[in-house]
Write a structure and sequence with these properties.
6-stranded mixed β-sheet, alpha/beta, 23% strand, 2 domains, Hypothetical Protein Tm841, Chain: A,domain 3, globular, Rossmann fold
């Protein structure tokens, strides 16, 4: 049985990269200052940050039902089944919508929507894991089940350069944002499963890097049994130079960083430019 692995652009997989991997990538829609965009179609990283400021009105959405069903129909002409890996259901309704659509008669038993609570670099790793399992001969249903059973076997920590984007999104109050800026406090956020939550508050970017790395070392060693059992990533918004410097710190204390990718735009619009992240995902163990 031939299986198509499909994801959305929240994975950070670009259209060009998707073509090389043989993975169709559904572009996420945005509206910025009243104009509609599709990620990596008419809105790339550079264009996005040129448009993004604290006065910009940014609205995120999900792919339309028609768009998604048309893509499924197209791929089912070539493949027997589809594994679709969208962003975490805790961060968007797109997974719920896709799951509902997959139960339509023409897709029942052919389209398998994976709800494994991943986003950005860990979602991308789920795509690569799905490809690996497919090539090992696992069925679409077996791959879906494995990805969902192991959904919590990943970890992300993020810090931001400007706290104003969190304030604008309602994650912190205006008073708290003002207080944090006066004391040069950097929040450290985490994604452990469904949602983006507060983890730590430290002074300055140097302290934020230290907090993220220390906690990742703890996760890798205590939750996942050591660095040999995980894929390790660094990610960023707009500032690759800082990310590359952070990699040197990470590799000197923890282990090899496999990739250094930009965070997806759906994450970036809530945390702004200059953000930095470290993440890991447990390797497939079958």
């Amino acid at each position: 049985m031939s299986i198509c692995i499909m994801t959305d652009s929240n994975s950070g997989i670009t259209q060009d990269e998707g073509k090389k991997l043989g993975v169709p990538v559904v572009p996420m829609p945005f509206t910025i200052n009243g104009k509609d965009y599709l990620e990596d179609i008419n809105l790339g990283q550079e264009e996005f940050y040129n448009l993004l400021d604290l006065k910009a009105v940014v609205l995120t959405s999900q792919p339309s039902a028609g768009t998604l069903m048309d893509l499924w129909k197209k791929e089912l002409k070539e493949y027997d089944s589809i594994i679709y890996i969208p962003m975490s259901s805790g961060l968007s309704k797109s997974c719920e919508t896709a799951t509902f659509l997959s139960h339509e008669k023409e897709f029942e038993g052919k389209v398998f929507v994976v709800n494994n609570q991943r986003i950005s670099v860990t979602q991308k790793q789920s795509v690569l894991d799905a490809m690996y399992l497919r090539d090992k001969g696992y069925s679409a249903e077996e791959i879906k089940n494995y990805l969902e059973e192991t959904k919590l076997e990943s970890s992300i920590y993020i810090t931001v350069d400007s706290i104003d984007y969190l304030r604008r999104g309602g994650r912190i109050t205006a008073a708290a944002a003002t207080f944090a800026k006066l004391l040069k406090i950097k929040p450290v956020l985490q994604i452990q499963g469904e949602k983006l939550d507060a983890f730590d508050k430290v002074r300055g970017m140097k302290g934020a890097k230290r907090s993220m790395l220390d906690q990742m070392k703890k996760d890798v060693n205590e939750r996942f049994g050591g660095i040999d059992n995980v894929h390790l990533f660094v990610a960023y918004t707009a500032d690759k130079e800082t990310a590359l410097e952070f990699i040197q710190m990470v590799e000197s204390e923890l282990g090899h960083v496999e990739t250094c990718d930009p965070l997806s735009l759906s994450v970036s619009c809530h945390i702004g430019p200059g953000a930095l992240a470290i993440a890991c995902a447990k390797k497939v163990n079958l």
